[in-house]
Design a protein that fits this description.
Elements: H1 2-6, H2 11-18, H3 23-28, H4 30-37, H5 43-48, E1 54-58, H6 60-63, E2 65-66, E3 69-70, H7 73-82, E4 85-88, H8 94-97, H9 107-118, E5 122-130, H10 138-141, H11 149-168, E6 172-179, H12 193-198, H13 201-215, E7 220-225, H14 234-250, E8 256-259, E9 262-264, H15 279-291, E10 295-304, H16 312-330, E11 336-341, H17 351-354, H18 376-386
Parallel strand pairs: 1-4, 1-11, 4-5, 5-6, 6-7, 7-8, 8-10, 9-10, 10-11
Antiparallel strand pairs: 2-3
The structure holds alpha-D-galactopyranose.
Alpha-D-galactopyranose binds next to loops.
């Protein structure tokens, strides 16, 4: 081990390549040792060549230690090998850290932050306000804002944002300040207990961004949403444009649009053999967003494969094709910064529960399969990063 380390590889690289527990067996193999000395570039190394980082969400349950053992060392090693940045899957949300109006519970979020710091991997903040009653803690939906509801709502929100940002401020430089604030039916900002108390959704969102700017003046502040390139997302894209225009008109400090990128093959388009997508409309959308001076960031990339046939090889190839089309388009924008996946290994993806396939088979939505083997989707990402336009 000391020889390999002295050959100029970082310990992180070597440990990731060794796959943690398979240390002895791996050391015996000359071919593998050669791989270790000349490891193929990781996704984040490829992304780095055009100024970006590749990353993924991560759950604290994968990292928890029992004694010196990480709970899921293979997952942790894979993240360390491929990623330059991670984001908490759920551990920073109000539902996770706010048991009630008075207290905070940072146990799980701290575990992620400490692990990222110990491994010199960057961390994003997600999210300071998911402005959707379904994702508020129950106590917040039913909160009694008292005789002066606007000032109590402002106090509560400001206190939350300042507390979280200050705790992780030295480590996090890009924050999803607000997540998914749009009402699809009403086409405006969703009504929540906070907007009811403060008088309007705009007031809530503006306060969130102003507070974030004051608390961390250098940080990138992001509005994050799931508008996407599928035809059924056109109205949502227009709603997001109106929201972003409003931010600019009111001087709300928003730096970037987070494009979640849970892209979906919901039917087969005979023209492409994968899912239908709006290339021109989506480019128009991105052009309008960047034209207003916003940067872009891909925050939660994965692929729903619902309409694809059961056959695994065929399915993986179609998912890879769709990935490549999407990434080539996104990575043609110099305004696009980091690119984060929402999970690396199929079996741990939220989509297994949220969007199960009709045939009952596992959704193949991530770059790695359940045995931690790279799929063609990983290759598609690598090729897209290799050919990306440099980040501005
Ligand atoms: C949204 C949220 C994420 C996550 C996914 C589903 O995209 O922004 O935090 O909850 O849904 O897992």
């Amino acid at each position: 081990m000391r020889d390999i380390l002295s050959a100029g590889l970082s310990r992180r690289h070597v440990m990731a390549g060794l796959g943690g527990t398979a240390l002895a067996g791996t050391m015996g193999s000359m071919a593998r040792a050669k791989d270790l000395l000349n490891p193929p570039p990781s996704l984040t190394q490829l992304a780095q060549s055009t100024g970006r980082k590749f990353g993924s969400c991560i759950a604290s349950s994968h990292l928890r230690h029992s004694g010196a053992i990480v709970q899921n060392p293979r997952y942790a090693d894979l993240v360390l090998n491929e990623c330059g940045i991670v984001v908490p899957e759920n551990e920073m949300k109000w539902q996770a850290i706010r048991p009630d109006a008075q207290s905070f519970n940072f146990t799980e979020m701290d575990a992620i932050a400490q692990w990222a710091k110990a491994n010199s991997i960057a961390l994003r903040g997600h999210t300071l306000l998911w402005h959707r009653p379904k994702w508020f803690p129950e106590w917040l939906n039913n909160y009694d804002f008292g005789a002066q509801p606007a000032s109590e709502a402002a106090r509560l929100l400001t206190h939350h944002i300042e507390t979280v940002m200050k705790r992780y401020g030295g480590q996090i430089h890009s924050w999803d300040v607000v997540n998914e604030a749009i009402d699809h039916d009403g086409h405006g900002i969703l009504a929540t207990s906070l907007s009811g108390a403060m008088g309007s959704g705009e007031d809530v969102l503006d306060l969130a961004f102003h507070t974030a700017r004051q608390t961390a003046p250098e940080a990138q502040l992001v509005y994050n949403d799931y508008m996407s390139w599928e035809p059924q997302h056109e109205a949502h894209c227009n709603d997001v444009l109106r929201l972003l225009e409003g931010f600019r008109k009111r001087g709300t400090p928003v730096d970037a649009l987070g494009i979640q990128s849970h892209i979906e093959i919901f039917e087969i388009d005979p023209a492409t053999g994968t899912g239908p997508y709006r290339e021109k409309g989506w480019r128009r959308f991105l052009d309008e967003v960047t034209g207003m001076g916003y940067k872009l960031i891909v925050t939660e990339f994965d692929v729903k494969d619902k309409a694809l046939p059961s056959d695994i090889a065929l399915r993986d190839q179609k998912v890879a094709d769709f990935t490549r089309r999407y990434c080539d388009l996104m990575l043609s924008y110099p305004e696009l910064g980091d690119f984060l996946a929402w999970g690396l290994v199929d079996k741990y993806s939220w989509l297994q529960g949220f969007a199960p396939r009709d045939d009952g088979l596992e959704v193949r939505c991530c770059p790695y399969d359940d045995d931690y083997q790279p799929k063609s989707m990983r290759e598609a990402l690598a090729l897209a990063f290799e050919q990306a336009v440099p980040m501005a």
